Amino acid sequence: MAADNLTEVIRIRVTFSLLLASLFLAGCGNQFGSGTQAKPDLPESVSPGWKLGSLMQTPAPPEVPQGATPPVCWKAEYAGPGTAQVFLCRYGVEATAFDAVQRVPAEAQAVKFQVGPWFVLVKWNGAAKTDLTALIRAVQKSLAKK
83, 90, 79, 31: which is closest to 57 by C-alpha? Predict the structure, then answer.
């Protein structure tokens, strides 16, 4: 009879351990998996007149490395003292976002940077440097919030 109780206890512990492992992995998948991530919380407006026109999930731009696990990317369109497209790609780990910053080639009227697991590429037209700097700082600040 004691052997039956011991077998039952072991079975319960194994089942419970598997359940905990499944919940942990499901949680990681929701945080870093593709397609299930919440929208980034970007500012609707930024002084001196930037307004967020749209924010939608999109495939990564062609110049952005895919890595072992492709990032989940969003594209924000801002209008104001010019136009700006902000591509935000979240990788599973910060090191991959850092690698993306290093590997994406520099180009005119574009800036790239990293905030934690986020790789950000901003492309603009017709904006003064000071106006664009205000928008970039606002994006950086919104991504740095945890």
Answer: 90
Count of C-beta atoms within a 10 Å radius of residue 45 = 11
CA angle, 53 then 36 then 124, to 5°: 30
User: 50-87: per-residue pLDDT in tens?
Assistant: 999 999 999 999 999 887 789 999 999 999 999 999 99
Q: In this structure, are residues 97 and 119 in contact, taking their beta carbons and an 8 Å threshold?
A: yes
For residues 89 and 71, the answer to whether their CB atoms sit within 8 Å is yes
CA neighbor of 104 nearest in space, from 83, 120, 125: 120
Distance CA 40, CA 77 (A): 13
C-alpha 60, offset from chain centre: 11
pTM beyond 0.90: the answer is no
Query: What is the rounded (10 degree) CA torsion for 113, 118, 121, 124?
Result: -100
